[in-house]
């Protein structure tokens, strides 16, 4: 899921960086003090999640947790995921510093889209309905991220459909796992901290 | 929240327990430049990239030739021009590797292989020594060192608990700092 240095055309790298800066500004503006600890915890979860590998076929894929971050944080997912990606690049060499902007957009933009799509469903009084929306958000964020990765590769010269299909197929298990994790997280939050999603919706 | 904490800790412990090496980082290395450039391409978990086309270009992007990796991810390329060689491997889905061999590292007798044996007297003086002794020694050393190199590569890519915890610490510190700044701003405006 992390595109590495040198895989993309310079225009794509610059475009990604510009979009990422815009998203970061938007995220920092909409990050109330009360949400900073939540952003930190989700950033740390994202940082560690990429080390958990799901072996499939000849390769293996890792968890991303972008959807969950988006559901809880909204636009603030941008800074949270950016910090996680930055440290992954520095500590583990995942991705790279020049493609940091593109990777941030690829993972955080779907998170924000999912938030717009699912935030009303998450406030449902019935835990089952809210959990279903959470699961949908978790799975959809990964699907959209694969589309973004495919698009970034396509803009750099690869054929869009083969590249996107390859990434998409490899991540179907991740989508299922992330949907389950996000659904379970929403269910848990409903039990122990029902105000989590409600307060975030009134103050995006 | 108190009920949540043990559950979170248990989940973190479960998540951290099986830590396999990352599979999605591409590693590439050049390990011989004489007489041909020899290198390898693979993933950081030890899987080698078998049967992958390698594109060879000069720094300006002009093609110098192509080669392919074998089943062990090893490729060979015989340079014919004294320029910096850039080897590009595309493993698909955004996994690319690029390695550069500087012009200075190319074999000294580039393009003179045909002329070298023709010089009669030095060859006659060392008649007992096989002509390709250098190459044979280089090959033997390469074979001996190969497992060591693999170990070294695996070690370099190894992620230990310290760096994971260190990263989490950085995140906590960063967000703590943000929290502090936000709280101070709020206190000042009150």
UniProtKB/TrEMBL annotation, chain A:
It is found in: Cell membrane. It comes from the Bacteria. InterPro entries: CbiM/NikMN (IPR002751). Keywords: Cell membrane, Membrane, Transmembrane, Transmembrane helix, Transport. GO terms for biological process: transition metal ion transport. One of its GO terms (cellular component) is plasma membrane. It is a multi-pass membrane protein. The chain crosses the membrane at residues 12-30, 36-56, 63-91, 97-118, 130-154, 166-189. Its main location: membrane. PANTHER family: METAL TRANSPORT PROTEIN HI_1621-RELATED. This is Cobalt/nickel transport system permease protein. It comes from Roseospirillum parvum. The lineage of its organism: Bacteria, Pseudomonadati, Pseudomonadota, Alphaproteobacteria, Rhodospirillales.
Automatic annotation (TrEMBL), chain B:
The chain crosses the membrane at residues 164-183. It comes from Roseospirillum parvum. The keyword Transmembrane helix applies. Residues 1-23 form the signal peptide. This is Nickel transport protein. The keyword Signal applies. Keywords: Membrane, Signal, Transmembrane, Transmembrane helix.
């Amino acid at each position: 899921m992390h595109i590495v240095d040198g895989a993309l055309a310079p225009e794509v790298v610059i475009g990604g960086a510009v979009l990422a800066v815009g998203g970061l500004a938007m995220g920092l503006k909409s990050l109330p003090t009360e949400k900073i600890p939540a952003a930190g915890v989700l950033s740390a979860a994202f940082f560690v999640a990429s080390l958990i590998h799901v072996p499939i076929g000849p390769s293996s894929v890792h968890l991303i947790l972008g959807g969950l971050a988006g559901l809880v944080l909204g636009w603030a997912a941008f800074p949270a995921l950016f910090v996680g990606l930055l440290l992954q690049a520095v500590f583990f060499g995942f991705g790279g510093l020049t493609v940091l902007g593109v990777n941030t957009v690829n993972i955080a933009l779907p998170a924000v889209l999912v938030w717009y799509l699912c935030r009303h469903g998450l406030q449902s009084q019935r835990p089952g309905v809210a959990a279903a929306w959470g699961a949908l958000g978790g799975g959809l964020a990964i699907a959209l991220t694969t589309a973004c990765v495919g698009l970034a590769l396509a803009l750099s010269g690869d054929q869009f459909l083969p590249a996107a299909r390859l990434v998409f197929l490899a991540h179907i298990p991740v989508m299922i796992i992330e949907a389950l994790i996000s659904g379970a997280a929403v269910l848990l939050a409903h039990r122990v901290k029902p105000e989590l999603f409600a307060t975030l919706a009134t103050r995006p | 929240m108190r009920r949540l904490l043990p559950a979170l800790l248990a989940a973190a412990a479960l998540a951290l327990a099986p830590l396999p090496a990352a599979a999605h980082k591409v590693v590439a290395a050049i390990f011989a430049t004489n007489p041909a450039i020899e290198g390898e391409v693979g993933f950081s978990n030890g899987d080698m990239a078998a049967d992958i086309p390698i594109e060879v270009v000069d720094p300006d992007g002009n093609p110098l030739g192509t080669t392919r990796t074998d089943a062990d991810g090893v490729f060979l390329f015989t340079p014919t021009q004294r320029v910096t060689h850039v080897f590009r491997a595309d493993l698909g889905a955004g996994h690319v590797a690029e390695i550069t061999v500087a012009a200075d590292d190319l074999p000294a007798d580039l393009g003179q292989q045909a002329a070298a044996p023709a010089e009669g007297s030095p060859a006659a003086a060392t008649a007992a020594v096989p002509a390709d002794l250098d190459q044979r020694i280089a090959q033997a050393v390469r074979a001996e060192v190969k497992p060591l190199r693999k170990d070294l590569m695996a070690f370099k890519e190894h992620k230990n608990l310290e760096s994971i915890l260190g990263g989490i610490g950085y995140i906590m510190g960063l967000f703590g700092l943000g929290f502090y700044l936000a709280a101070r701003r709020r206190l000042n405006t009150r």
